[in-house]
Recover the amino acids of this structure.
């Protein structure tokens, strides 16, 4: 291919299989002799398990085994801590990780109590219902603010209270800055994020081969290598005895990187015990309580501003709901703490959070991973500051932007990757200007809004800014190879859940190796194919794995040139690689196909020179010193029906900077999908628990995902400040679209309903029609 | 209940199948696990997400809301029946590929079947009509925009 593939809107390699219904997802797998598992789950948010009788279940035809915590023996142990607490001085962290099956106390609804294995899923579910459990319900700490009140029921009775963690991070001297402030604005903010709800639930299939003494596990995980390593350790196997395959996965968005879920521990173990393959596929009802959530934080935040709107400092004290256990460490609240600083110069910052155990499902990162919460706080504070100072909303943001010459810009505090938070590059003012232009800000505010308001319509505009720390380490790797059929292959350890890695990685290789994108086969998520890696999270696939792929491809290109130069007895500089062949420039007929060259690179006779490796193949690893900082501006015009409080988005604009773009079509898709999830979070989705910790809306009829009617057509524009932290200049894009939608809704809905003039501010997310109606009514 | 079987006969993508199944077996499980046509995906099993949409006698139906015996004597089409052969795609599938109308692809088979029936009745839809017709199918990845583009593209090509 003489045309460059990198950066082009190339059609995806994976699509034909997916469209034809041939792509293998986990539940598509059927193995000879396969058994099916179902779980009995706790109906109580907090209860003592007094006794459990599985005999009726075992008596049912088709039931092969029923396991309780007692049956697991030494295999029963709390799960690993995935992310340790950050190295922040004075940080407190109480590690309490999830258990495979409830032994004595259930701590959230949905916690598994017993596993049934049977000849069909239907029988397994019947048998799970046969099990008799004698529960002693305990007082419940269901709600975040109540869980920290003195005397609240304790989720873990070996701790004095529900404190999971306490972290304070500071930059500069907020107290001194506050003394100089023209004005200090202080509010309480409540931000609740929901659950990811990928269209495919989770699942695990495991097969123990007694002959080869090898375990194969298919798992809908975003981190197959970590699952392999952990399972090998738990089962007393070597890592080479365990193969974990993450097949095609129907969306991840964060919760599928949580590890280990109880089922991930139990299904492989049962397969070894029984000597038969075991399959467990989560159903949607289970998913609502068995897969992790993200949920809420409560912020008491204040901003100190000068008369011209310049930020002098921010102070924030917040509570973070971590659920019943905290296996994912403090990633979510650390992200909130760091991302609050946004694209702005905040010279003084004092942020303290307390993570709190509650009797609710575990909180782990979900697309945005706490960044939303922080962005909501700073954006709302700026909106209020603008109002109180008589400044335009866009103008106060512009005045506070970090200037382009200030990069790399250090925010000093510790980020989720444990490095000092530093922005690698960016240029924010042009993004804002572009967004304002695209949404027609000036004209709307001056002409359209007054005209429409006079006609009785409730229309408003919003504009918000954000940054996202993406592409963190530690590393990823890739092996690139030219195969003897002339096609290239890429192996990498990260899993893929719809991000288009089969195509974007192929694009990176295609240019170097001189083949078409369709002739690059990308294999991800199979630990037997590539041994090392961390996983797909933190918008890091294209950044970290993409650069490893690029480095490996560059090395293969060198091998191609060297091998061809030896073959033709010419100089490497005389060679061109294109269209799957290596040719001597300007000499017609003197060329060799890449496949033939691959055969030459693997001779069967003769001696190869010392230090020579066979094949046209290279493996490379890439680990950035710190994350690359993406940024963006979202703007929208919304109309609200004041009777129903249902919003209609009339215009939605995204201007985004994710550095160098590999495939613009894929980037657009990532942003669209992120915004859709952001809209869900801002207005439609909320996990509603009662005081007993029961989730009241655990169906898609009650927990409302946005449909094609709620998500508007979006207009996208890109600016590019390449990341200096990786050779390709890429910044991550996976989570960006989802992050700023909450404050955008709050700002635009306030504007549409004229709430500030009625003394009403929207300081919480999600809003939703009923809540918006209550809040608006309180003002009038 | 377990053990009782009823004999059913259905035609799926033009092939007749006879099976003895438990009366409670969901049609979605029958298609996926009895017939091995795993292109039809299961997203919620309560009739909201639309991932399992198939055509029964030409009309879109959620396979998770029917029992297999209810399909006795019916003609079913699934995503596997769209493409003419293994190397080619149906024009609707082509349009989805061209417009990047899928990401993880899990909801896609249900959307394709829904849109196939929709386009048969509405060969020249407006974007608003496409969105209305899509609103019974949940997609968590795409934000729908490229799906709408794909359906409009398929309609335009069919008219050309």
């Amino acid at each position: 291919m003489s045309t460059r593939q990198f950066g082009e809107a190339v059609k995806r390699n994976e699509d034909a299989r997916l469209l034809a219904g041939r792509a293998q997802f986990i539940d598509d797998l059927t193995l000879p002799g396969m058994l099916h598992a179902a779980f009995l789950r706790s109906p109580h948010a907090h209860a003592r398990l007094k006794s459990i009788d599985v005999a009726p279940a075992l008596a049912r035809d088709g039931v092969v085994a029923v396991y309780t915590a007692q049956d697991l023996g030494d295999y029963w142990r709390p799960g690993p801590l995935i992310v340790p607490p950050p190295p922040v001085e004075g940080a407190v962290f109480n590690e309490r990780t999830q258990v495979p099956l409830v032994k004595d106390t259930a701590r959230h609804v949905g916690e598994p109590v017993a596993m049934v294995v049977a000849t069909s899923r239907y029988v397994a579910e019947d048998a799970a219902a046969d099990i008799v459990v004698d529960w002693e319900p305990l007082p419940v700490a269901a709600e975040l603010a109540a869980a920290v009140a003195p005397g609240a029921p304790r989720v873990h009775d070996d701790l004095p209270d529900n404190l999971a963690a306490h972290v304070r991070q500071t930059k500069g001297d907020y107290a001194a800055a506050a003394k100089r402030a023209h004005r200090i604005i202080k509010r309480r903010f409540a931000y609740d994020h929901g659950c990811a709800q990928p269209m495919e639930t989770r699942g695990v299939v495991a097969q123990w081969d007694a002959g080869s003494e090898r375990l194969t596990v298919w798992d809908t995980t975003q981190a197959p290598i970590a699952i392999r390593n952990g399972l090998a350790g738990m089962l007393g196997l070597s890592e080479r005895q365990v193969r974990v395959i993450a097949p095609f996965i129907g969306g991840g968005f964060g919760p599928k990187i949580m590890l280990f879920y109880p089922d991930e521990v139990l299904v492989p173990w049962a397969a070894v015990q029984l000597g038969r393959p075991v399959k467990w596929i989560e159903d949607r009802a289970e998913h609502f309580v068995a897969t992790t959530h993200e949920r809420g934080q409560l912020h008491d935040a204040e901003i100190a501003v000068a008369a011209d709107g310049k930020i002098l400092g921010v102070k924030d004290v917040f509570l973070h709901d971590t659920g019943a256990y905290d296996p994912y460490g403090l990633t979510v609240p650390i992200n909130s703490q760091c991302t609050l600083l946004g694209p702005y110069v905040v010279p003084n910052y004092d942020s303290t959070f307390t993570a709190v155990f509650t009797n609710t499902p575990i909180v782990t990162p979900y697309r945005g991973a706490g960044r939303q919460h922080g962005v909501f706080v700073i954006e709302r504070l700026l909106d209020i500051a603008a109002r109180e100072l008589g400044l335009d909303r866009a103008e106060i943001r512009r005045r506070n932007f970090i200037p382009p010459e200030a990069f790399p810009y250090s925010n000093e505090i510790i980020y989720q990757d444990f490095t000092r938070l530093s922005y690698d590059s960016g240029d924010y003012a042009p993004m804002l200007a572009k967004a304002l232009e695209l949404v027609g800000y000036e004209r709307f505010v001056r002409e359209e809004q007054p005209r429409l308001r006079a006609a009785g319509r409730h229309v408003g505009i919003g504009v918000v800014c954000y940054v996202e720390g993406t592409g963190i380490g530690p590393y990823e790797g890739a092996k690139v190879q030219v195969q003897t059929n002339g096609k290239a292959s890429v192996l990498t350890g990260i899993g893929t859940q719809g991000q288009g890695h089969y195509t974007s990685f192929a694009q990176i290789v295609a240019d170097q190796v001189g083949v078409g994108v369709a002739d690059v086969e990308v294999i991800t998520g199979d630990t037997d194919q590539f041994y090392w890696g961390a996983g797909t999270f933190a918008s890091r696939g294209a950044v970290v794995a993409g650069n490893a792929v690029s480095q490996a491809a560059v090395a293969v290109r060198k091998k191609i040139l060297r091998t061809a130069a030896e073959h033709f007895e010419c100089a490497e500089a005389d060679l061109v690689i294109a269209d799957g062949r290596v040719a001597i420039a300007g000499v017609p007929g003197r060329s060799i196909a890449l496949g033939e060259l691959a055969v030459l690179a693997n001779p069967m006779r003769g001696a190869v020179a010392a230090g020579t490796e066979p094949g046209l193949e290279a493996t490379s690893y890439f680990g950035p010193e710190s994350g690359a900082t993406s940024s963006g501006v979202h703007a929208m015009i919304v109309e609200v029906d004041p009777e129903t409080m249902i919003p209609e988005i009339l215009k939605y604009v995204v201007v985004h900077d994710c550095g160098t773009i590999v495939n613009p079509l894929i980037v657009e898709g990532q942003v669209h999908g992120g915004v859709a999830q952001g809209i869900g979070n801002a207005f439609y989705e909320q996990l509603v628990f009662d005081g007993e910790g029961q989730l009241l809306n655990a169906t898609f009829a009650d927990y409302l995902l946005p449909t094609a009617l709620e998500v508007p057509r979006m207009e996208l524009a890109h600016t590019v400040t390449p990341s200096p932290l990786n050779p390709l200049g890429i910044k991550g894009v996976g989570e960006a679209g989802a992050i700023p939608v909450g404050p955008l809704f709050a700002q635009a809905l306030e504007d549409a309903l004229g709430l500030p003039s009625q003394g009403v501010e929207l300081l919480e997310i999600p809003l939703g029609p009923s809540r918006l109606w209550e809040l608006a009514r309180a003002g009038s | 209940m377990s053990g009782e079987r009823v004999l059913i006969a259905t035609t799926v993508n033009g092939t007749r199948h006879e099976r003895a199944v438990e009366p409670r077996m969901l049609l979605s499980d029958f298609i996926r696990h009895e017939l091995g046509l795993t292109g039809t995906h299961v997203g919620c099993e309560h009739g909201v997400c639309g991932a399992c949409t198939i055509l029964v006698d030409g009309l879109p139906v959620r396979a998770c809301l029917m029992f297999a015996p209810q399909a006795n004597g019916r003609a079913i089409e699934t995503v596997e029946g769209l493409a003419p052969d293994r190397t080619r795609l149906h024009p609707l599938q082509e349009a989805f590929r061209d417009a990047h109308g899928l990401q993880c692809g899990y909801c896609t088979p249900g959307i394709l079947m829904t849109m196939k029936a929709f386009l048969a009745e509405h060969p020249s839809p407006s974007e608003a009509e496409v969105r209305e017709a899509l609103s019974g199918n949940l997609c968590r990845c795409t934000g729908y925009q490229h799906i709408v583009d794909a359906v409009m593209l398929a309609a335009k090509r069919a008219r050309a």
Remarks:
- The domain at 15-22+473-622 of chain A is CATH 3.30.365.10 (Aldehyde Oxidoreductase; domain 4).
- The mean pLDDT of chain A is 96.
